[in-house]
Amino acid sequence: MYKLLISLLLLCSLAVNAKQTHLLTGVVASAENQLVTAPKSDNWQVQIQWMADEGSIVQKGDLVVVFDAGGIQAQVEQSEEQLEMEKLELHQIEMRLQQAVTVAQGRFRLAQIMVEKTKVQASIPDGEISAYEKGKHVIAYERSIVEKVKAEESYKLRLEEQKVGIEKQKIQIIKLTENIAYKKSQLSKMSVVAEVTGPVSHMMHPHMPGDKIATGMNVRVSWKVLLVQAQSSYQVKTWVHELDASRIDFDTAEVTLSLDAYPNKEYTGKILNMSSQSEQKTEWSNSAYYLIDLGFSEEVVNDIYPGMSVRVKLSSDGAEIAGVSNHD
After folding, report:
1. For residues 26 and 312, what is the distance between their CA atoms, to the nearest angstrom?
2. Measuring CA to CA, which residue among 251, 237, 236 is closest to residue 290?
């Protein structure tokens, strides 16, 4: 009787302390990496002229992707030619308008002189000249005043035309200069160099399952094209099914990592980060998965590289029956 009771207690204890184990597949990745995406262009897509080979090791500063920039280069050259023409036009406008201002200024000064001259003649006292001559001088004085007003208005108008005309042409030049700078900025993004030293991975084509982005393909703006991962700061990325994620206590979970290339060596791992939102993985199933970043808790003695496959074992307090979450 006592033996039976002890056996039941032991079974209950084992059931309570049983750990739920999830087996996942992961891949070695670097926390320091460079993701190359298709740059903006005037068209809705751009062609890849050249890419570094899949799996090749590139050094920081090496060329990794070249996009077709022929159209943008032609636009830059055309805009630069137009800019030179607009600058020449500005010089001609400045000369033409300055000449008009000079002519109007001369007319205004002459009108001022005529006013002073006719004023003196019109101010001759009565009796010194005939009434007829006096009347002629007064009329000439009044006319000179009217001519002065007209000349002054014409001078001010020419000054305003000069200011507006030159400013308008300068604005046109500024617009062209900014457009050229923008095009050159686009042009600089058509040739991408590596920001880190490490292996190259071509990204999967978003609309052609099983195919990767390759040289000669037309890609749309912001498509993921290529990934360069640094040969340091290694992590393991894995995905867990949304149903299994609800059963795992990630705060207390024990992580064991085993590289497929070195199956006889296991490493203790740790959970670094888990995505807050699940993502659909149509290549696996119609279900959603959470991305988990794992780190090595001990020094890795084997040679590892980004892209190597990893077996991940997550153990946490839970039900007596183990769950399996393979998706390879």
Report:
1. 7
2. 237
Per-residue model confidence as pLDDT tens digits over 83-104: 999 999 999 999 999 999 999 9
Q: What is the pLDDT of residue 19?
A: 67
Domain span at residue 244 reads 19-68+196-317
**Domain final residue pick, 188, 207, 225:** 188
Mean pLDDT, range 13-31, rounded to an integer: 74
* Whether the Cβ atoms of residue 187 and residue 125 lie closer than 8 Å to each other: no
**Can you say how many angstroms the Cα of residue 288 is from the centroid of all Cα atoms in its chain?**
30
User: Can you give the pTM of this predicted structure?
Assistant: 0.59
Stated as kind and residue range, the H or E segment containing 288 is strand 288-296
Domain end, chosen from 137, 168, 188, is at: 188
- Cβ partners under 8 Å of residue 251, min gap 6: none
Please give the C-alpha separations between residue 120 and each of 108, 114, 124, 137, 152, in angstroms, as whole numbers.
19, 10, 7, 9, 21
